[in-house]
From TrEMBL:
Taxonomic source organism: Corynebacterium heidelbergense
A biological process term (GO) from this entry: pyridoxine metabolic process
Protein name (Swiss-Prot/TrEMBL): Pyridoxal 5'-phosphate synthase subunit PdxT
Residues in coiled coil: none
Transmembrane segments: none
Taxonomic lineage from the root: Bacteria, Bacillati, Actinomycetota, Actinomycetes, Mycobacteriales
Length: 196
């Protein structure tokens, strides 16, 4: 099969690290900045950053509705941190004018880990991936409700859900792309292959 072409939403945030990781895994990452960049993708990554800014830029560029439609039609998509927020149906503690793509039936609360622990690193037992997956949390969102269509893939020791999947849509509260651990990206690429 030809190399999978993975769009990396590159309007704001940590797109460079995802691009590097995908390229190192043999995929063909391509930046998505405008509407016409949404053509002929085999998958899509939505990086971390600032979800309200990503939302505004998707709106301004006219990509919001086409992206909703593409993901609803089965485009494999992986969102990290702000990317997870963008994929959720319900976002708590956000701006009233912020939009999301509604691809994962979950409620997420932005910046929910408190000030002292704005940033931390841990290893997680993640279903389908590894028992010791590396995870970096930076002003991370907390998943507070998980719908029936959504599988919980990883939790923190206190039970907080931090990785979810629904069909070929994958989301993590944390940043795997900031670690040397590419196994979640490998798993995502396996979902892309399956759906081709
Ligand atoms: N706090 C950011 C938001 O609400 C997410 C942080 C991140 O992506 N690292 O969008």
């Amino acid at each position: 099969m030809p190399t999978p072409r993975i769009g990396v939403l590159s309007v704001q945030g940590g797109f460079a690290e995802h691009t590097d990781m995908l390229r190192n895994l043999g995929a063909d990452p391509t930046p998505v900045r405008r509407l016409d960049h949404l053509q002929r993708l085999d998958g899509l990554v939505i990086p971390g950053g600032e979800s309200t800014t990503i939302s505004r830029l998707l709106d301004l560029s006219g990509m919001l509705e086409p992206l909703r439609e593409l993901i609803a039609a089965g485009l494999p998509t992986f969102g990290t941190c702000a990317g997870l927020i963008m994929l959720a149906t319900d976002v708590l503690d956000t701006r009233p004018d912020a939009h999301s793509l509604g691809a994962l039936d979950i409620s997420v609360r932005r910046n929910a880990f408190g000030r002292q622990v704005n940033s931390f690193e841990t290893t997680l037992n993640m279903a389908h991936v590894a028992e010791d997956t590396e995870a970096v949390f930076i002003r991370a969102p907390r998943v507070e409700r998980v719908g029936e269509s959504v599988e919980e893939l990883a939790t923190l020791p206190d039970g907080t859900v931090v990785a979810v999947q629904s069909g070929v849509v994958l989301g993590t509260s944390f940043h795997p792309e900031l670690t040397g651990d590419d196994r979640i990206h490998r798993y995502f690429l396996s979902l892309v292959e399956q759906s081709r």
